[in-house]
């Protein structure tokens, strides 16, 4: 019988939000999936535990390799071992605010890490066979020159993260032009999910409100409530990443919903999911959200302050507004964002409510759960 060899993908950042959704997506498509995970002092594979296959499983299709984007020889060795058809470079220090505190490390992992992977492909002579996806970002636009943003909108990044990703964007373009490498930039706008990192604003809100609703926390502290983002669902966005690598020609694409909401609107929508109505009072750093209507069974009371501003969460330079135009992706990839804003918030809120119920039970039993308030 003719043996059809399956495609092999290598994912850096497989333990992150997108890595987990992409690994699941590619496994369902029949791929053999290899992922790079960092050595950590405790388990860090929670997001992909449901996909894990014991190393003794015959013919397993998910293989993890220890590695780091700051370590060239390690990356060359992994690419040499795997000889992937597709590399998805999702690994990064991806938190914008943290990049102001760790700018050099962010540049090393996010900018030079991309160069190291591209060089590994070249050193091993795989330019002809290995396709490369670079996780570029709407943070490249920063101080936006036009709205909505397209593939042709000029870049003006506003953080060490954005500047590092600007290098990564251009080095991927350069390797495409200089060496004929099939390299694509997906310029992805914010995308979220129930497994979004807990310190990004959306997850911080759904987790915080769930904890307040169940009486585990009194108040949620946020920064700029007026920031506006084009928020989609990670599950939809990883499909676009894959589609970009299946085209006859490598190109760059904006991936977005084309719809924008403020952080304050996200809070209101998440509160509504709990049956709670909020009233916003005060202004500037004195602005607060007060419970106007508390649902039955909630630990909150009408009149209680549940959201306040902490200037610690204001950034040295802010990206005030982002809105993407995904027309090119719709026309060339036949891709659209399927999940609406309301459905995204609903799914995240339901998931955090159920996780928080579990935490409440653990605490009632006399055990402590991790706090992670940042
Ligand atoms: P996460 O922060 O959830 O995941 C980042 C991943 O990168 C984790 O697996 C992390 O490992 C890994 N990582 C961090 N540093 C290194 C390093 N030095 N070497 C190897 N791996 C490393 O990010 P997302 O999944 O949300 O995003 C995926 C990519 O897409 C990132 O590059 C991000 O910058 C970019 N992006 C994200 C958008 C979004 O809205 N989510 C929008 C546009 C771009 P560990 O688990 O050990 O920390
Ligand atoms: P962002 O996402 O910076 O857009 O980067 P984040 O959720 O961190 O911030 C979005 C906006 O919300 C404002 N904000 C707060 N942000 C956080 N984290 N915590 C707060 O308390 C808070 N209060 C208000 C921020 O100032 C900002 O304006 C994400 C990351 O996934 C990047 O890796 C990715 O490239 C971009 O999205 C697209």
Automatic annotation (TrEMBL):
<comment type="similarity">
    <text>Belongs to the NAD(P)-dependent epimerase/dehydratase family. GDP-mannose 4,6-dehydratase subfamily.</text>
</comment>
<keyword id="KW-0521">NADP</keyword>
<protein>
    <recommendedName>
        <fullName>GDP-mannose 4,6-dehydratase</fullName>
        <ecNumber>4.2.1.47</ecNumber>
    </recommendedName>
</protein>
<dbReference type="InterPro" id="IPR016040">
    <property type="entry name" value="NAD(P)-bd_dom"/>
</dbReference>
<dbReference type="InterPro" id="IPR006368">
    <property type="entry name" value="GDP_Man_deHydtase"/>
</dbReference>
<dbReference type="GO" id="GO:0008446">
    <property type="term" value="F:GDP-mannose 4,6-dehydratase activity"/>
</dbReference>
<keyword id="KW-0456">Lyase</keyword>
<dbReference type="GO" id="GO:0042351">
    <property type="term" value="P:'de novo' GDP-L-fucose biosynthetic process"/>
</dbReference>
<dbReference type="Pfam" id="PF16363">
    <property type="entry name" value="GDP_Man_Dehyd"/>
</dbReference>
<dbReference type="GO" id="GO:0070401">
    <property type="term" value="F:NADP+ binding"/>
</dbReference>
<dbReference type="InterPro" id="IPR036291">
    <property type="entry name" value="NAD(P)-bd_dom_sf"/>
</dbReference>
<comment type="function">
    <text>Catalyzes the conversion of GDP-D-mannose to GDP-4-dehydro-6-deoxy-D-mannose.</text>
</comment>
<feature type="domain" description="NAD(P)-binding">
    <location>
        <begin position="10"/>
        <end position="348"/>
    </location>
</feature>
